[in-house]
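Model it.
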Amino acid sequence: MESTLTYLERLTRETKKPEAEVMTRAFQIGLRQLWREHILGRYLRHEISRDQAIEAVGIDWVELAERQHEAMTEDLAWALNE
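Modeled.
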């Protein structure tokens, strides 16, 4: 399993970008992902409306979360009936 440092070194070398730029981009992407997960979690817990979730993260992400949640619910129901 590769370490975070290995990923950083490879990205820096293979993209020919400065380490600071790669780190900044990684931070930005990670922060966006955390925000998206936070919003989708709130939506699935019925803390915010579907429209609010769509406005915050986009319809594609909301629809993906809905499909994943439905699949997980179906799997759980199946497992509990077995």
